[in-house]
Amino acid sequence: MDNSRRTFLKIAGIAAAGLTAAPAVTSLASSASPSKGGKVVRNPEALTAKHWGMVIDTRKLTTSADLEPIIEACHRIHNVPTFEDDLMMPQLPCRMAETESLKQSCEKVNEKIPKISSDKKRHEIKWIWEEEFHNLFPDQLNPYLTEHLEHLPFLTLCNHCANPSCVQACPTKATFQREDGIVLMDFHRCIGCRFCMAACPYGSRSFNFRDPRQGLKEINTAFPTRMKGVVEKCNFCAERLSKGQMPACVEASNGTILFGDLNDPESEVRKALKENYAVRRQPSLGTEPSVYYIL
Amino acid sequence: MLETALKGSKRYWSLLIVLGGLAGAGFLVYLQQFELGLGITGMSRDVTWGFYIAQFTFLVGVAAGGVMLVLPYYLHHYKVFSKITILGEFLAISAVSMCLMFIIVDLGQPMRAMNVILHPTPYSMLFWDMIVLNGYLFLNVVVGWAVLEAERNAVAPPKWIKPLIYLSVPWAFGIHTVTAYLYCGLPGRHFWLTAVLAPRFLASAFAAGPALIIIMALILRRFTSFDAGKEAIQGIARIVTYALIANVFFFACEVFVALYSQIPGHVHSLQYLFLGLHGHNALVPWMWTSLFLMLLAIALLIVPSLRQNETVLCFSCIILFVGIWIDKGLGMISGGFIPTPLHHVVDYIPTIPEIIISLGVYGAGFLILTVLYKIAISVKEEVSA
Ligand code: SF4
Ligand code: SF4
Q1: Phi, psi at residue A196, to the nearest 5°?
Q2: How many CB atoms lie within 10 A of CB B30?
Q3: b/e per residue, B159-189, with b = 16+ CB within 10 A?
Q4: What is this model's ipTM?
Q5: Which of B38, B41, B178 is the best mutation test for A, with the most CBs of A within 10 A?
Q6: Is A281 in the pocket of ligand 1 (CB under 6 A)?
Q7: Residue from the list A131, A139, A207 with its beta carbon closest to the beta carbon of B108
Q8: Contact B116 A141 (CB under 8 A)
Q9: Are B376 and B149 in contact (CB under 8 A)?
Q10: Given CB atoms, is B348 within the 8 Å cutoff of chain A?
């Protein structure tokens, strides 16, 4: 990735962080211009790692009810929409018809205009969601799966692969990987070709088939909303890390999801992986997922 | 030479009006899509490419197929093709134009299309596809135009055109190879993840493209003064026959690998396409039709006496074109997405607006083709007059 953009994103991140953390940083960030050699100052409280990773302890997340608040927390703070209605072709404005008969025929035409999507599910946006074992690990076709795994709900999210095929496929660098391993989306650069979605072998990405703002009841102003026609996915809460906070799902999980530096043998995640049997999704594909599941 | 496109018979103008109307209707519906987003298509979170990208893939093949005329003529000095190479070059222009239009209508944010150039990303296959497609368009415009201009002035084509012509031969292979690479380099998509995808794409291209040229040549002979010549048409017919056999053979290789190895990931997509999976069988009748049409076309084309009969030949070309269209324009893309990486089976059915927009692109493309063929024929008429 070109340096100036990375610098820019850093500054943008700091500017966002600065709003809540340190006003001094904000003023610095807004006056600093990367091209003029302005100094980039990291939020001193930002959490950093060589390579971020996540460990999900599925032994403690056994029911959908356990997963729900976690999913809710993520989707709420990230303005992930939920659509209540199908997308409709626009209707004729019959109110404006001048005579009654005109109005009636206008309404008749409206009835004929087809509902474009009978199934709003097709437009679903998901950052973190629930799937079953055999969906998550399709290669593990053990017909005699233990009773407990068979119906266990699994949290599913972008794996922030160390070798992400989505980044390789994106023709505009709208999907890019940071030095700390997090795979991010630049919503303003994405052209909506959906190449990354074909490339991701985990179904982790969503596309804004329609205006996402129509699916939002309340808006978290601390995080941007998106526009139609761009791809999005879990961002490992990069915006929270830069403010010194843990990801929202981790916070909402009561210690069942661990988050930390996979390159640091002393980190919580590494300790957990040392002591427990953990698996990753489809490791044979070589994408090197950074999300681990303790079974 | 452009002015020759402006003088034409009633029939020529009516054809232009019909095609223009189609393009216009497509454009109006496209405005709706622009406003509402790609949600008006049948695509979903799971099947994220649909009819548009499938048509794009198919048309890259049609464009690449034109090389099957250029190559024998320029590389092997096969003189009977002298009159019709221009048909191949102009078909390539219109097919590539349609490809580019299909890509544009498939973008979620078309206004940002230039980002591909502003932020070139050499490890993305889409970047290279853009380069090869535009390059091929450029090559064919320059070559086709220069050669036709020379013909009109009854002089030899300029010397500088030769290297471009030679370049256009590997380039034609390149466009379809890179287009196959868009798909076959993706992990987890078993249906596409096969080294034979690019050869298969090329084989189908070298059947479908020239088949369309045969159909066009027969139409032109019927309605205009242009006659490609029986020998030229038979020459193309032989190419079509070999290419079609190769196409079906490559497919058989795929089926063997999948079914004999019985590796589930490889079996499932084929199962979805030809037998249905978990009760989802939207494409099953289509795929069998496609296979049947291709086999029937082989049976008809392989017998010399039948192939030499131009009615049978025309019929064979039509059915094989339809067969390949179904294979690439419907099955190829869906088969890669279904079942999904999470092993859900989600059907994809194009919506009416999606189909109208696609027809609109075809309308615009054939409009370009008609105008180009009109110019080519007018020049040939002038020369022989
Ligand atoms: S899970 Fe998919 S979207 Fe996430 S980094 Fe890996 S390839 Fe990319
Ligand atoms: S849809 Fe956006 S993020 Fe995905 S590959 Fe295309 S430009 Fe990149």
Answers
A1: -60, -30
A2: 20
A3: eebeebbeebeebbbbbbbbbbbbbbbbbbb
A4: 0.91
A5: B38
A6: no
A7: A207
A8: no
A9: no
A10: no
Question: Would you call B115 helix, strand, or coil by DSSP?
Answer: helix
Q: The tokens 């010399």 sit on which residue?
A: B304
A–B CB contacts, 8 A cutoff, strictly below: 165
pLDDT in tens, chain B (385 residues): 778 888 888 999 999 999 999 999 999 999 999 999 999 999 999 999 999 999 999 999 999 998 898 889 888 888 889 888 999 999 999 999 999 999 999 999 999 999 999 999 999 999 999 999 999 999 999 999 999 999 899 898 899 999 999 999 999 999 999 999 999 999 989 999 999 999 999 999 999 999 999 999 999 999 888 888 899 999 999 999 999 999 999 999 999 999 999 988 889 999 999 999 988 888 999 999 999 999 999 999 999 999 999 999 999 999 999 999 999 999 999 999 989 999 899 989 999 999 999 999 999 999 999 999 999 999 988 887 7
Name which of A243, A239, A293, A234 is nearest A269 in CA terms.
Answer: A293
CA distances for A47 relative to A77, A180, A244, A245, angstroms: 19, 11, 5, 7
Closest CA to B201 of B261, B243, B152, B167: B243
From the list B37, B46, B182, the residue facing A228 with the nearest CB is: B37
Please name the amino acid found at residue A143. Answer: P
**B48:A172 CB<8 A:** no
pTM of the model: 0.89
Q: What's the CA angle centered on B42, arms B36 and B47, to 5 degrees?
A: 115
Which residues from A are below 8 Å from B356, CB to CB?
none
How many angstroms separate the CA atoms of B54 and A99, rounded?
47
Give A111's DSSP letter: H
DSSP letters along A205-225, please? Answer: -EE-SS-GGGG-SS--TTS--
Ligand number nearest CA of A178 is: 1
Q: How far apart are CA B166 and CA A56, in angstroms?
A: 58
Distance CA A252, CA A237 (A): 13
Classify residue A37 as exposed, middle or buried by CB count within 10 Å of its CB (0-12, 13-18, 19+).
exposed
DSSP 8-class letter at A95: G
The answer for B263, left when phi > 0, alpha when psi is -120 to 50, beta otherwise, is beta
Terminal-residue alpha carbon distance, chain B:
16
- How many CA atoms within 13 Å lie on the side-chain side of B94? 21
